[in-house]
Specification:
This protein is an alpha/beta fold. The protein has helices at about 1-15, 25-30, 50-55, 70-80, 105-125, 145-160, 185-195, 205-215, 225-245, 250-260, and strands spanning about 40, 60-65, 65-70, 90-95, 135-140, 165-170, 200-205, 265-270.
């Protein structure tokens, strides 16, 4: 859900329609970095010399996103959403059993069955890009899939690409906004994995998010889609220097160098002004 919201918002920022067709894309206005998070159908992107000369470019941009879940329901919601048609159907990887809010199910049993399939899709996306700087995972730590399978994916990515940066947007559970009693266990088990295998972790506190929506924005009945929208806003802020040319020539490595005092202390608090 977060990933879909984030990719949809990035697409709108670059002038795309919900199907991925680029109606309003102007290279001079929207910058030359649309291919950081998108790839062009039948092409490699606007900064590639051969592409500029080619007359027939599709103009359709597909997100470099892989959606993984242990139950098909949530991915169906993404497919049916406003930006659902923009995603590549092959990049949806799902199981049928669900993790039942159990970290071990997501990490060792149910998750282990589909993780290789997911890594194959990730590898295909990585091989289709010119230069991979890193991988980004958005997951929640309260349930079984986000915490268990999310950290298993992180581990497999670290094994396959040891020299690439990994960053996660991790939604931490809160006792005030809680679905299940086992959320603290899932979060602690996942945090141990993030400590060892992630390079940068952007912490999103569920309670703070909820209080922003209710107290600051005065929403009577906050929906998940609205909270995902807020998360996508801060994600856009963090990645702005990767997606647009300008004086602030930022990348993931520079962010890490300036923010991380010791390798294991890589948990960032994010905010939006």
């Amino acid at each position: 859900g977060i990933n879909a919201e984030y990719m949809g918002k990035k697409g709108r920022e670059k002038g795309e329609s919900s199907e991925g067709a680029n109606d309003g894309f102007d290279p001079n206005l929207h910058g030359d970095k649309i291919d950081v998070y998108f790839k062009e159908q039948n092409g490699r992107g606007p900064d590639h010399n051969r592409e500029q000369k080619r007359k027939k470019r599709s103009g359709k941009w597909i997100p470099r996103a892989v959606m993984v879940d242990l139950e098909p329901g949530t991915l169906d919601v993404v497919t049916a959403s406003a930006v659902g048609k923009a995603f590549k159907p092959d990049n949806f990887v799902f199981g049928n059993s669900g993790a039942g809010n159990n970290w071990a199910k997501g990490h060792y049993t149910e998750g282990a069955e589909i993780v290789e399939q997911a890594i194959d899709v990730v590898r295909k996306e990585a091989e289709g890009s010119g230069h991979v700087q890193g991988f980004q995972i958005a997951h929640s730590l309260g349930g079984g899939t986000g915490s268990g399978l999310g950290t298993l994916l992180l581990l497999k990515i670290r094994d396959a690409y040891p020299d690439r940066l990994t960053k996660t947007y991790s939604i931490y559970p809160s006792p005030k906004v809680s679905d299940t009693v086992v959320e603290p266990y899932n979060a602690i088990l996942a945090t141990h994995q993030l400590l060892e295998n992630a390079d940068q972790v952007y912490c999103i506190d569920n309670e703070a998010l909820y209080s922003i929506v209710t107290n600051l924005l005065k929403e009577d009945a906050p929906t998940f889609s609205f909270m995902n929208y807020l998360i996508s806003q801060v994600q856009m802020g963090v990645t702005a220097s990767l997606r647009f040319s300008g004086q602030l020539n930022g990348d993931l490595r520079k962010l890490g160098v300036n923010l991380i005092p010791f390798p294991r202390l890589h948990f960032f608090n994010i905010a939006q002004a």
